[in-house]
Amino acid sequence: MKPRSHPPGGLAIAFALRAAFHAAVALSITVSSASAQTFSLPPHFQAVPLPGTFNLPVGLVFATDGSMLVLEKPGRVMAVDAQGQAQTAPFLDLSREVNNDHDRGMLGVALHPGFVPDGGPHSFVYLLYTVSPVFGQDFGFNQQDRYSFSRLVRYRAVTSGSDVVADPTSREILLGHQLADGTVPDGIASLHNSHSNGSLRFADDGSLILATGDGAHYDFRDTGGNDNAGFDNFVHPTTQLRGPTPKVQDEGALRSQDLRSLAGKILRIDPDTGLGYPSNPFFDGDPASFASRIWALGLRNPFRMDLIPGTGASDPALGQPNVITIGDVGWNKWEEINLSKQGGENFGWPCFEGPLPHTGYQNFMPADPSVFSCANATTGTLTLPVIAWHHTTPSLFYPTGSYVDASG
Asked: HEC states along the chain?
C-alpha cells in the first residue's frame, strides 16, 4: 500500500473540488431524484443530473447563454446547449494527445470573457492537460524512459450546423512548446503520475490564472535525482530525443519553491500570448521568463482553485486580479485551503505541510550548495493556510477553535 498522498483516483477529484469551490454543481451521470435525496448537502448546494453520458467528467464551464462545456479527463470536451441537450459530437477530442495516466489528464478549461462561438476574438476555449509521450497511448510516468509534461492551448469555437465545435486550424500553444529535439523549455514539469496541472480561471482584469502541481513523487521524499530520463540532458537511446524538462528543475517537490520552474505555482499570464505581466510579483523584465509568469508559489497539488467574484480590478496593469482560493491536496498528514490576496505568497510546500514545518524536507541538506533546499531564503511571503485539517487527529484542526456547520 503506497504512502498516502491524496484520496485515490476519483476521490482525489471530489476532495479537491470540495476544498476549493465556494459553490458547486454535483456532476452525476446516473443520479435520479430518489438517489439525489440520499445526499445531505449544506445550505445553498444542490445535486443535479448532468445531461448526457460522459467519460470521467472532471470539470465544466458555463457560457453566458447557459450552455456549457464538460471536460473529460481522458481528453474530450463535450458541449451541452442552453436547453440542457448534450451534443452528440465532441466539441474537441484530444484524447490521442492527452496522457490519462493515474491522476493526470485534461484537468483545466476556461472560456474567453464574453465567449461567443463565432470564431471571433471572444471565441477562445483554453485547455490545460498533460501530454502523452507517445500519442494514442497512456504511458506510465517513466514507461520506456518516455516522460510527460503539461501544456496550455487555446482553440476558437465555431458553430457548424447545430453543433459548437473547435476550429482545429486555430490551435495555439501558449505553454508547452515541444522542440524537434524533444525538449520543452516552457512546459510544466510532470515527473510522476500525479500533481501535474489543475484549474484555469479568468480574473476580472482579463488575466488567465493557472494552478500547477509540483510534478513530483508522492511515494517518497522527492528531492530530485530520481527521473534522469525526464530531463533535457538525457538522450533516449532509441528515439534520440531528449527529455522534456530543463535539467535545472531536477529538484523533486522543491520545484514548488523555485522560480526557475512553473510547477507548484499559481500562474498569471496574458491569455493572448502566454507571457507574464509586468504587474506580477516576480516580474524580472522578461515577460517570457518563468519568474515573470508566477503569481504565487509553494503548492503541492492545487488541483482546484477559484476566484472570489468582485474582488479584482479591471486593469491588468494594476496587478489586482481577484482573491484566489486554492484547495491544495496534502501529503501524509495535512490538507489545506490557501488564500492569495495580493500575489507573491509562498504557501510553504514542501518545507511546510499544513501549518507546520515538514521535517523530512527541512532536514534535506544537498551536497551541492547551489541545489535548492529549505535552508535557502524564502522566496515571496511565507503564508500559512487559512484552514488546514489533520488526517487522523481532528483536534489539530488549524486554526484552533470549534467549527460547526449551519446544522450544528
From this structure: CCCCCCCCCHHHHHHHHHHHCCCCEECCCCCCHHHHCCCCCCCCCEECCCCCCCCCEEEEEECCCCCEEEEECCCEEEEECCCCCECCCCCEECCCCECCCCCCCEEEEEECCCCCCCCCCCCEEEEEEEECCCCCCCCCCCHHHCCEEEEEEEEEEEEECCEEEECHHHCEEEECCCCCCCCCCCCEEECCCCCCEEEEEECCCCCEEEEECCCCCCCCCCCCCCCHHHECCCECCCCCCECCECHHHCCHHHHHHCCCCCCCEEEEECCCCCCECCCCCCCCCCCCCHHHHEEEECCCCCCEEEECCCCCCCCHHHCCCCCEEEEECCCCCEEEEEEECCCCEECCCCCEECCEECHHHHCCCCCCCCCCCCCCCCCCEECCCCEEEECCCHHHCECCCCCCCCCC
- What pTM does this model have? 0.90
Quick one: average pLDDT of 222-226? 95
pLDDT (tens digit per residue) in 42-68:
788 888 888 889 999 999 999 999 999
> What was the pLDDT predicted at 12?
37
